[in-house]
Design a protein that fits this description.
The chain contains 7 helices and 8 strands, in the order βαββααββαβαββαα. By secondary structure, it is of the alpha+beta class. A hairpin with a 3-residue loop joins strand 2 and strand 3. The radius of gyration is 21 Å and the shape is globular.
Amino acid sequence: MEIKSSCLVIADISGYTRFVMLHTTSLLHAETIISDLLEAVITQSEHPLTIAKLEGDAVFLYATVEGDQRMAARTVLKQVTEFFDAFRTKERALIGCNTCGCPACRSIDKLHLKAVLHHGEVVIKKVGQFLELAGESVILIHRLLKNSITIKDYILMTDTYYQLSGGLDGERVESRTEHAEGMGDVSVKVYYLREKIPLPPPAPARISEPGTEAAILYERMNDYSYRRLSGLEPRRRFSSLPDMKLTWLSRMDYAIGRLIPQIIASLSRVFPKKR
């Protein structure tokens, strides 16, 4: 067991409404979409950041600091800004696929990314083959995920982290106080990262040509859904999605939900609208 000074980061994806989750097809496709977006975010992480814990719609990362703490904080913050670029690029690509008309696939533009950063001491202990982080700093950063901020895309950092990193150059920052349950009020700095170019509206679902990115995505969705429905794929923990029990009714619901959008897409391709 070691106590290390560390930069802590949580990147979290949310945005789907309860309405989107009413049908099995939509729920399973939502799990695939969020996983794809989170993978795009994680791909941008590199040294000194290390994944501490991966959940369905969030990733907890840390970077132990041995030398220049200010340099480490700035390096990690730069990576976090790149998380948002990767998220938006992947989000646009998924919207462009439009291979399915289910509510989850039609609501990709409603998904958002937020990041919380803190600097402090953490307890690092080995549990089996894995390292586990604990301590007050770990508790604090998780509790700051539940805050009073209403704007969806943002970077929140504690004043401790802000003082070390210097914040984001050229970006407007808001100073505010958030309440961390059981830990009192915490002074934080928040940057609201709005999309500079609006996301395109979802186009009507269509059948994709084999081998295209859209076709590959749809095949992956169907493969994941089959494995989930057959019990071959355990459900990942998605805090923003309901933990729905899958039954034979779920299988029927998925079959119908997958078939109808494909029929509509086929008909729209055979009988295009006249201008």
